[in-house]
Specification:
- With about 450 residues, this protein is an alpha+beta fold.
- It folds into two domains: about 25-185, Immunoglobulin-like (Sandwich), CATH 2.60.40; about 195-460, no CATH class.
- It is built from seven helices and 32 strands.
- Strand 7 (about 110-115) and strand 8 form a beta hairpin.
Amino acid sequence: MKKKYKRALTIIALLFLFTLGISTGYGFWKSVKEGNTIDKSKTLDCFKVYYSNETESITLTNIKPILNEDGRETTPYTITITNTCPDEKELQIRLSVLEDNTVDLTSLTLLVSGNLESDIIPYNNLKNTKASGSTIKISKSLGLIKVKANETVRTNIRLWFDEKKVNTLGNEAIFHGQFEIIDNKTSAKPNFAETILLNTEAIDATALNYGELGVNPGLYTINVNNGNYYFFRGASTNNYVRFADKVWRIVGINTNQSVKLILNDSAGMSRYSSYKNAMDYTGSKYIYNNNLVDNQNNKYLLEWYKKNIEDKGFDKMIEESDFCNDTHNTTENYHRYFAGYSRLVAAKTPTTICNPTEEDFGGIIKQKVGLITADEVAMAGGLDGSNNTSYYLYQPYDFYTMTPAEYYGYNAYVFYVNGAGSLLRTTVTDNMHIRPVINLNSSLTVNGLGTVENPYVIENS
């Protein structure tokens, strides 16, 4: 009888533990933990950070919205931070949502307790912060914590989806976010784009005459698609950058605050294309045998990028961007004129706007490296058919742009800049210098002043 009694007690105990495990999960979602982390602690500079969920990442599937009163009872994510610095520090705790998140954030709700306190609050009501990486879609601050030397603090964060704001999220919905612990002093530092604007007063380019050779050097600004685009023009002397062991020049600041750079010197020589007898060969990419292939110049660029940027660990700082290979065109007397010809030869009206093409070659090329456009050369101070050695893009050799110009007589032509600084056209099979263009992501910070003696240097590298 005693053995049967003990066996019954054992079964009851196991059932209790099983039930407890289910109730602790609360049945509202399935949490998928990324990686096989054994040591739950992570070191951040002179801070020791411990995540109760074993990782700073949060991936939730099979999400079932609940009432706020039930949300108060969910199991929290606990972040434990120990300050091993010799002085007091102020930290910012963020919850960032990643690009591959598919959940509408309207119903995402939080409750924070511990050393950091806040009552129930919708995620969308939190203060926006500067994204710290290219994979982050939205970053918001949960608050600031002051941590004394050798002190340990803990913050509990409960998050759920309010069923009063959404009835269902669907079986395919995925929430993908991550916690970030940021030194508040570092987070307050201006990013690269902001630093440029602090160091250089921008000039309104609305009435700028792009047909003039004698231009005032400086940083100019125009409104593009309801955002401000900034570009350097003339013989600018404060747009030097040292990055990836090379010297670059700043072309401009994009509307998303990424910074466009062009290599100050040549990356070598290449043809634009191996063939010239079809207008398709003005495309950085074109269709061949029903496959999209890279033209010779683009192959050269991608190989150069892998060897000099990716293989050296700098790839994470580069933003994948839209490079404009504008293949819109019109025909007149068997002569095919591309849109760049109309803008830059027939008129002097460069643009930063690139529209998708109807052709099966060129158009908007999305990648991490490209060439400068003829429009950007014109905005910098280059002029069709006129020599100019007094603007920052000038080099005493010929180099390609990625802007198609014209097609006639079974010859495809693109724009290039010659050794006298003039914007001209050449057949795509000519061998010329290649100057790669990249876009640094908006989270980077820098030291320096942008001069040749004291160039901007990326801190994060």
